Amino acid sequence: SQQGEEDPQALSIQEGENATMNCSYKTSINNLQWYRQNSGRGLVHLILIRSNEREKHSGRLRVTLDTSKKSSSLLITASRAADTASYFCATDAWNYGQNFVFGPGTRLSVLP
Amino acid sequence: EAGVAQSPRYKIIEKRQSVAFWCNPISGHATLYWYQQILGQGPKLLIQFQNNGVVDDSQLPKDRFSAERLKGVDSTLKIQPAKLEDSAVYLCASSLGGPGAYEQYFGPGTRLTVT
Do A102 and B91 lie within an 8 Å CB cutoff? Predict the structure, then answer.
């Protein structure tokens, strides 16, 4: 299985609801990044969280990192139709013998 | 600020033919990445350059894939000969530094179809 794996694979919610996606990984990491990909804007960086950080915010996005559980979560609050996209976590474990690895992604659909 | 440029955007070739993709990163970005993204999957790192040196090419199928970054700026990725399983989107990205310590900026990708 992959270094980073998102859960769930797919998620459908109504506009205005919150969406939570999880990422689990196997080795120790230097940092973890979240990216969004849709057909209009391609692959776009959302947040980078370092291994010594526990939580970061950016607008309606909140990312947490639990290195003891080797997991991260991405919360999107007050979702909009424009948030419809695939969301990927990517781990940097360069110091631990792993190259930069993307997970398979969570496909989020926000219904109007 | 201009983004990462890639060309061509689409390419259709027959198996056993060769193909080349071009990437121009954001000015001043030292690190350049090539990814392969198969439909429904996350991007897979093929090769990473720091300036004009290779940092990681452990997942590059070197019997058919090659890449270069002359003068530490733009880069080309070549496939020769192509196989059906090479059908994918090839993404180029760049970052200020690396590996993985900085956000990556992605180009629009080249969609390759091998028939």
Answer: no
